[in-house]
Structure formats: C-alpha cells, structure tokens
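Milestone M4 deliverable, item 7.
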Amino acid sequence: MSLTLRTISREEHLAYIQSLPAASHCQVPAWGDVKAEWRAESIGWFDDRTGEQVGAGLVLYRQLPKVKRYLAYLPEGPVIDWYAPNLAEWLEPMLAHLKSRGAFSVKMGPPVVIRRWSAASIKKGIADPDVKRLRDVEADVIEPRAFEVADRLRRMGWQQGEDGGAGFGDVQPRYVFQVPLADRSLEDVLKSFNQLWRRNIKKADKASVEVVEGGLEDFAEWQRLYEITAERDQFRPRPQAYFERMWKALNGEVPGTMRMYFARHEGENVAAATMLVVGGHVWYSYGASANHKREVRPSNAMQWRMLQDAYTMGAKVYDLRGISDTLDESDHLFGLIQFKVGTGGEAAEYLGEWDFPLNKLLHKALDIYMSRR
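Output delivered:
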C-alpha cells in the first residue's frame, strides 16, 4: 500500500474515528479543545490507490518557551495499522510533516497491548513475598506482534520513554485495568467480582446509597469532592474550568461522550466519577469521594452502576484506567490495583510512550528542563 499523509478537517477526522469499533478518547478531535494550552491538528493517512482514508491522528503542539519550536504529542495514537509490516511507511511521512510544522521532538503512545494478567494471577503475585512488580508475574496473554512493533520502532530511531513519562504532556498510563464485557452476561461480570466487592455492593444497596447522573450545572459539587480527594491523596487538583471545558467539548462534538455520576447517601453526595465513551470502549476517567460515610461503600455502588450502563450501551470493555505496576503492599500506589483487581478484570500493559528527537539538542534541553522542574 502506498500512503499519503495530509492535514484533515475535524469532520473527516471524526468520521474516521466513528467508522472504527473503538479508539482512544485522547484521539477524537474534541480532545484538542480540552487541551486548550496546546495547539491541535488532525492528520490523516490515505491509500494512494483507492483514495480511501486508512488512518488518523490528533497532534497536540506545545511551544518551547521563547522559541517557535514545538513538542508534537499524539496521546494514545495515532490510529493506524500498527501491525503493518511497512510501519516505517506510515510513520516517516508523519515525522516529515511534523518537522515541517516546527516540531523539534515527537511523542506518541501506540495503542498496542503487549501483555495481559488475569485477576487470579495478580492475586497470586500479591500473595508471593518475592514478587514486587506486575512484570515479575508470568503474563496470561503475551502478544508477540507487539514485540515486533517495538523492534520496528527502535530500528526507525524511536526511543522508549521512561514509565513516568516526560515532555509537557499529561503522560498516559502504561498499565491499565480493564473489565471485558464482550460475550458475557452482567450476571457473569458480577460473579467475577471478588467477595469483598460483591459484599460492598450489597452493603451500599442495604444502606440505600443512590447513584444518579449529573450535568454541567453540577461541576461545583464535583469539584468540592474532587478537591477533598486531592488533599487526602496528596495530588494537585485540576481546576473546575478544566472539567467544564471537557464536558462542553466532548459532548458538543458527540453527545453522551462524557457522563458524570454521583453516589448519594441520605441526600448527600459522598462520591463522584466521570465516564468517557468512544465506540465500544468506556473509561472510568476521574473519581472523587468524601472523607466520611465510606462505610456505606458509595464508590463500589457507583462503579457497579457505571459498569451496568456501559454494558447497556453495548460496550466491549469497561476501562478503569491507570494502575501502577507495584504489588508491594507498603507502596502508597498499591491500593489502586487492589481496588481495581476486585472487579475480576485484567491488567493490560501497553507499549508505553515513544519519542523521536527531530532536533537532538532541543530534545536534550527539554529532558534537562523537565528533570529539574
């Protein structure tokens, strides 16, 4: 296949994404509006023989201070045939195009899964005192083609980023936790939850925890719970304006792409979450909870409602997003995987993010700047 790459309209970009079974929410055109501090461009690949569009990418450009040179970032993208044997013929025109746009470095996140671990295997790893990392546990599924993709990228000069990521961008998680929904009944899904999760869902039901959907007018209440969570878990919260912008941008492009949920007890909102939908892939995006009434298990009730809604929409995957690969109970990030593994789903490792320095001097300067920040 001979390919041509060019800038495309938002309409062409969205139509291509909607023709697929699923794609990352970071690769829809409206994600460029969410990331207001970046400049966005939609690019498309076309088959020269038929003229048919065969790929798309959302590129986010971030300018270096005082210099008209840019980091070009394709989060969880581009959306192309990653297993194509002629991968260079897809990526080399992209690099040339981005360089012509003033990019000094390119960062991308191939949406390619390399390994999967079942909940049972992870639990065995947690129980083994010699196992400290997910990668120390034998994977249940290994995708050999993903290793071939990594080899091709290295041969082209792409460099694998650190797990923690770099660049200006919000680094996307390398390890995620997903609940497969395809060819399963909701009863099967619930049965795969561990005993604690099922008990907590019953406890919430018995305590009359109510899960309701919210709207744009409810973001002040969302922010209240989110900032309580940020203080408790010691991270810097995003401003309310960011979530409102996300809601307007994503739902303005395709209504229903972003949803918000609240778990209430005795009329009080005690937990909240946002959910994103693109095709058959549904993500639990952000979560928040109060410091009290945790004993009525609002978060479990809310996740179960969101998962049921995803199933009703015909989703193939309910994605609980990022986890650390730590299985060390003394690590402060351990609770994240412990909570998510209770759903009986599976951990997935993506290829991670990759960098291509178009200008090695500026790329190195960026690395130094980020390491000192």
